[in-house]
Amino acid sequence: MKLIFEQGGAGHCLSLLPECDVPVVRPSKVRAEKAPLPQVSETELVRHYRTLSKQVYGVNDGVYPLGSCTMKYNPKINEDMAALPGFTDVHPLQPDHTVQGCLGVLKEAETALCSITGMDRMTMQPAAGAHGEFTGLLLIKAYHRSRGDAARTKIIVPDSAHGTNPASAAMAGFTVVNIPSGPDGCVDVEALRKAVGPDTAGLMLTNPNTVGIFDKNILEITEIVHAAGGQCYYDGANLNAVMGVVRPGDMGFDVIHLNLHKTFSTPHGGGGPGSGPVGCKAHLAQFLPGPVVEAAGDGSLSLVQPEQSIGRVRTFQGNFLVAVRALCYLKTLGREGIPDASKHAVLNANYLMHLMKADYDMAYDVTCMHEFVMDLGHMKHETGVSAMDIAKGLLDLGIHPPTMYFPLIVHEALMVEPTETESKETLEEVAAIFHQLAVTAHTDPEALHNAPSKTPVSRLDEVAAARHPILRWS
Amino acid sequence: MGRYVPITPSEEREMLSAIGVDSLEALYESVPHDMLLKDGDLDLPAGKCELEVRADVTNLAEQNTRFRTVLRGAGAYRHFIPAAVGSVVRREELVTAYTPYQPEISQGILQSIFEYQTMICQLTGMDVSNASVYDGATAAAEATAMCKDRKRVKVYVSACVHPQVLEVVKTYSFGSNTDVIVVPAKDGRTDAEALTGLLGADAACFLLQQPNYFGQVENAEALGAIAHAAGAKFIMSVNPIAAALLPTPAECGADVAVGEGQPLGMPLSFGGPYLGFMAATNAMLRKLPGRIVGQTEDREGRRGYVLTLSAREQHIRREKASSNICSNEALCALTAAVYMAAMGPDGMEQAASLCTSKAHYLASQLQSEAKLPLLYEGEFFHEFVTACKPETAQAILDALEAKGILGGQPVEGGLLWCATELVTKTEMDQAISIVKEVCGQ
Asked: Do B290 and B392 lie in a common domain?
């Protein structure tokens, strides 16, 4: 595909702006030359991006069982509502009385998400999951400091955690203590007991965990941390298994983040914008990034600074339009639909796991939650076909591959999360395609080493890309 | 209730039976029984159909005031958005894709980011750009983190940066246990003498905003030279529209250029989604946070694009990563790229020129007609502060609001006004006559 810089040329442009209707003023110092941006006509521009968009695979193109990413359907009504000029054409610094609708969106979303998670307060400021993690950890830091407990400098993270967990803990100034998982993929309770102490600031945990299992010892785990004086952080990446079924607040967690772009049906946009609201129990609410939305006696809403706020983590009120989309989803599903969605996410995962068991080894062969992890170690040993090869084979067959090589505790991992918005028929088609690949792995492994062959490009040389970085056109 | 689950009750029974359990609830056997929510525990309204949701949410949107004329910026700017921008970024395959982890089926997104990175470099004059961060403030905070090393640990920030940007830098620094020193202002600009006096051997960087929060054009090159003389890195946070006209961060000697990308085709949207752009010199490349797209070849030698330099990132480096960022603002980066391509070199410059010209007209008329003096005498770009007492400021804002005009942002000492290419002379004249009346002229 041509780059946009390789099209058009001098004189190609769109007719967009009027002549100046006031005297023209120039800055005293200007740049040496105009920004050498592309020069294209509107036809060239639109065709270029149309061409690019044909080489993209989204949820609306087909099934997307990307583990840990919850690629569920993104409802159209959400997009319509987020495009209302009453939301898009509002300045973030308008006076409170002129933005009651926006504050209403934030308040309603906060209230509903607190009900679902068992938290007392929530901020919509964080723009993504990792941003939420960082925010939540700062709440924990501020809490310990406010109690004169500055010696709590360590955050415990299981080795099965998302990479963002330890990275966020480091950014929040903590030392990371990694603890190994038990043979069942869950927290090794004895290892945790040994790890906690007077320097423990907290524990970060995903439950269900990254191998798709609900940790049955969860209450014991959070009690161990609390008894040692630490706080418990819930990574909401996997909330889609349990929303409306069981609440992080009831599991003993003090602070959580959610991913509205996973669990609450807002689109991923090819890598964002997301939204990572942070919820907390009452004892942490005074530290939330300010301002938060408060209701007065007469029902009017205003932005108020929490007493001992850690300060903003982003300008204004975060990715507001993402909150609008999530609110539409919450209103649509309501009290019956929220648990119904999670239960069907778990049903779909278990059904697909059941269909795939004949061909693939499961890393943990138990009832899973919303996702499951396959271990292709045996297949690789037998046929030479790796998790990567199977993933690339799927590309030729029109399916987005599962998450590869995560969690790190399973070496040839493929992590599958079908979500509740796929039909029984689609799941059966997915299983059939995986079956076809398992057969090919035994009959023609070379074909899979060379996959994909039907995509616009074949496997790309990532080593060369990193060794000799070309990061811009010139 | 509304529902997006396409499984019928009979299919559900078949599926449960295949799995070997008798109910959906039985799938949750690993959850401690008394922890499970009972009917009625979940305090949410009943679900609604699409028609009801539309009515409900439209009603919320209608409770907001849409101003006909916006004379306020202060970090969020109402600009003209070409129709082509919306038509591209609403394409559902782009909207509903994940981060491009599978490059063979994601070349469209990867190439669009590669092009975005290039355009950010063209706009700022810098060598390399990342694929975006959350907003301008987090970009500034991440930039300060890039500049620290074992010896150089302190972050210096101009008092004239956006107050919310300063606040975010401080919050991030609370995390990393970093000292933030605010370099005072003098006459609405960074005090160069104070900066020279403050910077020590442990200074990691100096963060400047151009134009600054008060709209003033800083002497960026000179301030950058002061930072460099002290061995500190120079970070410039720039308005991307102004950047089309003012000397580039590269020309001013910046090591890192960041900014709020919202003016590049994103509507105001009560604060987001917005876009943090980050660009740097080649020397700083491996300290850049976030995703970066690079060019490479496939097995047949065809040009293609991949996410690259991931050895910096959290999924590889975990607690040793340059940042925790994972999801960024990809669709906003695409928006900015389409916007910049639509505008082109001339359109970008024209937008910048219209903004500064209109702001100067507004400022001169507020002075001459309404007798509102400017608080600062220095050169400004498309924002400026008029001096007045808080009660006068409120009276002005109220009178403007009654006529559908959003007046300047209240700041210490007066009102911070902004004009963009969207505001016509007629609209400004109307606003000026209202202000004139309030001020009794």
From this structure: no
